[in-house]
Write a structure and sequence with these properties.
The structure is a single chain. By secondary structure, the chain is of the alpha/beta class. It is built from 9 helices and 13 strands. The protein has a 7-stranded mixed beta sheet, with helices on both faces. Strands 1-2-3-4 form a 4-stranded mixed beta sheet. A two-stranded antiparallel sheet has the order 5-6. Strand 7, helix 5 and strand 8 form a beta-alpha-beta unit. The radius of gyration is 20 Å and the shape is globular. Bound molecules: S-adenosylmethionine. The site of S-adenosylmethionine has 21 residues, from helix 5, strand 8 and helix 7.
């Protein structure tokens, strides 16, 4: 949703105020989430009302008050226009998701990455999504290909939504939702040597879960999708810096980096990246 907000606010805000408006914001179903800098915070209601009256089917506009934070990766929200409700239905690639924008993590900005990983999967794989949230990656994958996905999350709300979302997409036989700490769940012998593929979409902490994830890969080999936050001087260096980081973390394993790419920029000179790593055992 780049530039739309600035376009809508032209003539509504002073030019000096317009210059401070952030270009991009998220629309999740019928809910918009926007950031507003302190310099124009007195205009938040006007900005919310303008958005609400110009975007069809929008019901609520929330101001994001804090960065995504904490174990559950949540953000502080304040209603600035429309209905005071957090739950919506979001659609992508023929899948639908119940989302609670306040109680569990969700980002529409990862949709291209969900599609990319779903295109790598083969029939009958056993997949573990260590930080599965409300089931987004797991469901996009399993809707497309008959596989078995264990969707793990420590946030009870995300776990409950992942069960509802598997049912909503009629693939409850392909997704097993588990609630708890991925480290503890995967230490169970049930998962040792079982996985063809493991998703690790917790960029801030994925490095803490390397040993347990490698232990779960099948003896014949399998893939890790390892997410990182990388500080790089320039965008063009982010992929190389990520791969150096992965080499430093995986040196005691037999592995091959198959692919690395930037998923999105998450701050000044900070990039979220994903590396596809083939583990040989
Ligand atoms: C960045 S979110 C990604 C969620 C989901 N994969 C998505 O893209 O929508 C990370 C998720 O990991 C969960 N989480 C954090 N620490 C965890 C842990 N130790 N074990 C299991 N889940 C954890 C959080 O609750 C959150 O839902």
């Amino acid at each position: 949703m780049t530039k739309l907000l600035k376009r809508l606010l032209k003539g509504v805000l002073l030019d000096t105020e317009l210059a401070d408006v952030f270009s991009s914001f998220d629309i999740i179903g019928d809910i918009a989430i926007i950031k507003i800098p302190d310099s124009i915070s007195l205009k938040k209601k006007l900005i919310g009302d303008t958005l609400l009256s110009n975007v069809s089917n929008l019901k609520s506009v929330f101001l994001q008050k804090t960065a995504v934070d904490g174990e559950y990766r949540l953000r502080g929200l304040e209603l600035i226009a429309g209905d005071n409700k957090y739950v919506t239905i979001y659609k992508e690639y023929g899948c639908q998701f119940f989302v609670n924008v306040a109680s569990s993590y969700f980002s529409p900005r990862l949709s291209t990455e969900r599609l990319r990983i779903s295109n790598l999967v083969s029939e009958n794989e056993l997949i573990i999504n260590m930080f599965g949230g409300i089931g987004t990656f797991s469901i996009v994958i399993a809707k497309k290909t008959p596989v078995l996905v264990y969707n793990i999350d420590s946030n009870m709300d995300a776990y409950v939504l992942s069960i509802l979302n598997s049912k909503l997409n009629k693939i409850q036989d392909r997704i097993i939702s588990l609630h708890g700490d991925a480290q503890k769940i995967l230490h169970s012998v049930l998962f040792e040597d079982k996985a063809d593929r493991i998703l690790m979409p917790l960029p801030e902490r994925a490095f803490e879960f390397i040993d347990v994830s490698v232990n779960c890969i099948k003896p014949s080999g399998g893939y890790l999708h390892f997410f990182s936050h990388i500080k790089s001087e320039t965008k063009s260096k982010a992929v190389g810096d990520s791969e150096n980081y992965v080499h430093s973390l995986f040196s005691r394993y037999d592995y091959q980096i198959k692919h690395t790419q930037i998923v999105r920029a998450v701050g000044p000179r900070v990039y979220q990246t994903v590396t596809d790593i083939y583990i040989k055992k």
